[in-house]
Amino acid sequence: MTQLRWLGVALALAASVSSHATQQVPACAAGNGYTPICGMAPPEDLERSPDGGFLFLSTTPGLTNSHRSRLRIMDLASRQVSDMLIESQIEPGWGEASCKAPLAALGAHGIHLSTRADGRAQLLVVNHNGRESVEFLEPVRDGNSWKAIWRGCVESHDASMLNDVAATPDGGFVVTAMFSFSAMKADPHLEQLLDGRATGHLLAWSSAHGLHRLTASEAPAPNGVQVSQDGQSVWFSAWPGNGVWQYDLQQQKVVRKVALDFLPDNLSWTLDGHLLAAGVPDAQTFRRCFLSHDEFCPSASVVALIDPRNGTSHELLRVQEGVLFGASTALQVGRDVFVGAFAGDRLLLLPDALPAP
């Protein structure tokens, strides 16, 4: 997931910040193969609720820092968006016993929904507000909607900015560490972040081994992440490396690199075992938009479907600038695909984008 306010703070971009006039909101108009759903804070990551009727959204501050990072809910029937109510009730077995409840509202980034061994739903949330941590939430029904109960957490002391997270079958998780704060503080114009060098790595947590760095997992700005159903492989986006990489947990090394012609952000599994990836094709356009705080960044957006069995991919969508403002995630809902973004005011619905089962 592309960094927004969090990256700006980390990189001390004060010298590059310039004043900007109120930007004109682009038209919310459908096109060939897509329908925009507008009027919301940027939905950077998406998960579908356990009953299938809602989307859980993590909202970014946008490129102008004009939004509050938080968890939200979209009713798929009405397309209405509201904030997710979060209550707090710690429970043993959800994260580290020593990790305390957050003192402030969650600054949500990457999210991942899974089912725990006891059948209960679990929503993992990368949090930047007050600490770098992975928060354990339990989504529960709340009348005709959903709320979440904070159950526990794992705080990172890796001195790196976390990005996305995915649960593992043993009750743990893998999380991407995009870059170290110290290394990037001296890079206010993003040259090192965007030139393809290895800036980050993978971290894994389990109750038995705690949070630790995975051997030989270094990569260019690791971004979105998913874990295979058998728990043996980690698939993650090497963002400015223009690829999705497979890390084998037994061999403890990267064993495959799927090359793409765009910067892949978040990843999600389809029902038939493919990976959906969304992103932007031009690193320098992103750089200009980030440094100039252009909320409606004039960037194309791409969604691709990756077959992890043979490492092939094909595009589901490529739209030019003005349609979506920083594609960051794609999620299957039936045959449809919803595409979120790290900036702007909308997501896209791609009707019947996936083949019938």
From TrEMBL:
Presence of the UniProt keyword Transmembrane in the record: no
SMP-30/Gluconolactonase/LRE-like region domain: residues covered: 121-273
Domain of life: Bacteria
Pfam families in alphabetical order: SGL
Signal peptide (from-to): 1-21
InterPro entries: 6-blade_b-propeller_TolB-like (IPR011042), Serum_paraoxonase/arylesterase (IPR051288), SGL (IPR013658)
Keyword field contains Signal: yes
Keyword terms of this UniProt record: Signal
Record-linked PANTHER family: PARAOXONASE, PARAOXONASE-RELATED
Name of the protein in question: SMP-30/Gluconolaconase/LRE-like region-containing protein
Annotated source species: Pseudomonas mohnii
